[in-house]
Amino acid sequence: MASQGTKRTVERLSAAPSTPAKRISRLSSQATLICESGEVFLRPPGWDGTDWEPDHRGDLASLPEVFASEHREPPIQGAEDDGVEDCHPSWRVCYVGDQKQLANVNKMTRKEVKALNREIPWREILKQPRVVFDKYVEAARKEHEQWGTWAPVRPLSDKEANEVLKDPLLRTRVLKSRACYRDKACGQGALQAKCRVVVLGHRDPDLHAISRDAPTPTRLTEHILLAVYISGRNRSFLRNRRVWRLWSADATTAFLQGRQNEGERPNRLFMMSPRDPILEKAGAFPATIYEVTGSVYGLANAPRLWSLEVGKRLLAAGFRPHALDRMCFLHYDKEGCLDCIALVYVDDFLVTYADHFDLTVLTRLFKWGKTSFDTDVITFKGKQLRTVKENGVFVLRVTQSEYIRTLAPGKVTRQRGREDPKLTEAELSEFRSVCGALQWLVGQTRPDGAATVSLMNRGNDSTLSELKQLYALSEYFARTHSDGLVFHGIPINEHSIIVSYGDCSWANAQEYKSQEGLLVCLTTPDALTGNAPAVLLDWKSTRTPRVVRSTLAGEAYAADDSIDRGVLANQMFSEIIFGCEANPVTNLKTLRHCHATDCKSLYDAAIAANFNTEENRVGLAIRAVQETIAPQDMRWVPTTAMWADGLTKVSDSLRETFRNWLRQPTVQLRSDA
After folding, report:
1. What is the pTM of this model?
2. DSSP line for 456-504
3. Distance (Å, whole) CA 213 – CA 627
4. CATH class of 485-668
5. pLDDT tens string 236-257
6. CATH 3.30.420.10 domain residues, the chain
């Protein structure tokens, strides 16, 4: 007779002890029977018996059910109570409703986990202790005061309000509004109550007529600013030996500071006052109807109005926008020397400036929230910027460790791996979620995973194998969360060189397309004769737009695309270094631009006056390369020095080599190659 706790099939249940600890039975391929302490449980199809725990439900179907289940778990006693984690290893602190509870995030979908950190309904706040309610009342009072500071709305008297509501045209121009509440701490630590009053902008009667486009700075601009900063931090920018610093801040109540464009709206716009017990207790927004005279949260054109306001104030302070990125502003001193670069991403500012620049020129323009200097860890767009001193020089490290820690791990069970590889609807949704989360990461600080994310994304044709690859990449990022981009303080001046790398892996992508890998770096003239340090400015891993017939064709398209990105980086840097507006027609002052390829046939064709190709379209791509890159600037490099190779295929060894290069980027272009 088997010992207690042994798994038995249903045919042997009659011969088993009367009270076994656990018995498992495979009734059929459709269901599984479990006997636990005298009780019988029926498990769903596909369960392999590896990770089921009776006390922790794993089949929650909806978020309300998640909340109901999680609230039955014991509440957290305090932040210092580490015993909670020890007693419940599969649970972690998470935000449920507006309580600090134990939430089994491993048993929920990514969508459900995100929902836990969103808005808190005011009805839920009313159920909380008085101290919690009072904090949200204070947050509502603060929000009302901020609206009063910028006066984006004008309260109407009762007589004016009645006239608006009686007018058949004006009453259609009254937007409803409401207050949104949340805990900025997301349940971690002390409550940070936040209130934001928004209008229902999707009901704007002028939605089809107003301008809504709002520019944001590009990744390339951000990297150029960081390269200038770390070069200046080491007194190597523009040969003037000045020290440059880095400063970051966010402007408070940004979207309340814009002004509506006159003539864009055919008539006046109004807002119905928000109403809930918290606002009433705070005495906020006492009028019935307000006329919208400026910009308020929720309007579709609020981001645009804010960006226009930012540009107007910075222009008045002596800044001018970069010709190729209107949210990058340059400031010059009385001698015409660049002394400040300001990058504006919505309400977040990232600024690098020379030591003689008066920062109050900028700080007096807006009301600021949190501010950080390069002596701190600066957080910008979810990235951590750390300036450290290594071997006597300053180095800037850009990582996303905090974001990586939020990536929920995933696993495909053995039983599921033996079934149909086609993804179910739920698995396809999970695939898109994982792919989107990783896409943001590889596009910001981790290009070493860009090829995997691009090649594994086959849309609705993605299979279980691709999902496993993305799960493996998430685990890889978790193990290497401290890695990212490294900016070294190389000298930046009129002799700096732009280097573009283009590589292509033939017919390894979906539908026999080829995978391109593109890199753009900034380096010193030493790269022409030996190994020189570099700064990574731009990268991309993408598929060729069409199926190519040969390796030469793929390499030619990759070269053309990477050179195109290099030209943009060259023009942007040239305006900063030479002080003249970037224009490929009138501005002849640019940096030297070299291109590296490991395809000998492409190199031979690019330096030849006339060349022969079987495909005419390939010939056009090579001619485009020749128009931009002079023969002496076209360089062949061996595959071991082709750093874009790690962006063209899925390979653990290539990824590791590329990650090591990202820690210490170098460029070597031999003139006799």
Report:
1. 0.80
2. H--GGG-BHHHHHHHHHHHHHHHHTTT--EEEE---BSTT-EEEEEEEE
3. 34
4. alpha beta
5. 999 888 999 999 999 999 999 8
6. 485-668
